[in-house]
TrEMBL record:
It is found in: Cell membrane. The keyword Cell membrane applies. InterPro entries: SecYEG/CpoB_TPR (IPR018704), TPR-like_helical_dom_sf (IPR011990), YfgM (IPR026039). It comes from Chitiniphilus shinanonensis. The keyword Chaperone applies. Residues 15-207 form the Ancillary SecYEG translocon subunit/Cell division coordinator CpoB TPR domain. The chain crosses the membrane at residues 20-39. Keywords: Cell membrane, Chaperone, Membrane, Transmembrane, Transmembrane helix. This is Ancillary SecYEG translocon subunit. PANTHER family: ANCILLARY SECYEG TRANSLOCON SUBUNIT, UPF0070 PROTEIN YFGM.
Length: 209
């Protein structure tokens, strides 16, 4: 098929343009396609990982009240393979409770320390601090327990932190400090908090001393 002069010039211009830009554009298209496929693959991997972590966490929930060692093993698996997931910290909290209920306070302490150091959620870190301080108090470590409570971050836990601080100070023989802590707890706990009457009872008992 013969081309006229104008068509031949257009073909020549296209060939020149292709030699200058065509390979670049082809490479860009390939890179964009690879990026899209990688993005799709990453999300598929993330979904798969979340499903696996969810199954392990469900196993932990279903085992509450059972063998503390098995619960810890699953919690450790979450921490090892899915440490960035929300399941890992929650699994560690369950494992800490199971260990504490079994009287294995050192194991409980290790799980709670992990949550404080690794959770991305301030509320979970403070929940772990509260439980950790209680475990430390049970181990006759009141100063360590006070230090743990001193790291609390969330105002939502302020009332519970103050109450536990009062318990610790009372254990140390500091009745005046305990009274102030219980007063602070009463001022920061919600009026419908289930423990507010018990805090009042503890404060009333100290007022009579």
């Amino acid at each position: 098929m013969a081309f006229d002069l104008q068509e031949q010039e257009q073909i020549a211009d296209f060939k020149a343009w292709w030699n200058s830009w065509g390979k670049f554009l082809a490479t860009a298209v390939i890179l964009a396609l690879l990026g899209y496929l990688a993005w799709q693959g990453w999300h598929a991997y993330q979904k798969s990982q979340a499903e696996k972590a969810g199954l392990i966490y469900a196993r932990i929930e279903g085992a509450i009240g059972g063998d503390a060692a098995k619960i810890r093993a699953d919690a450790d698996l979450l921490k090892q393979d899915f440490s960035g997931s929300a399941y890992a910290s929650r699994g560690a909290l369950f494992a800490a409770k199971a260990s504490a209920d079994a009287g294995q306070l050192k194991e409980a302490e290790a799980q709670l320390n992990w949550v404080v150091a690794n959770s991305d959620e301030a509320d979970l870190r403070d929940a772990a601090r509260l439980r950790l301080a209680a475990v430390q108090l049970d181990q006759k470590q009141p100063d360590a327990a006070l230090k743990t409570l001193g790291g609390a971050e969330s105002t939502g836990f302020a009332g519970l932190v103050a109450e536990l601080r009062g318990d610790i100070l009372l254990d140390k023989g500091d009745s005046a400090g305990a009274r102030e802590a219980y007063k602070e707890a009463l001022s920061k706990l919600p009026k419908d908090a289930p423990n507010i009457q018990f805090v009042q009872v503890k404060l009333d008992a100290l007022q009579k001393v």
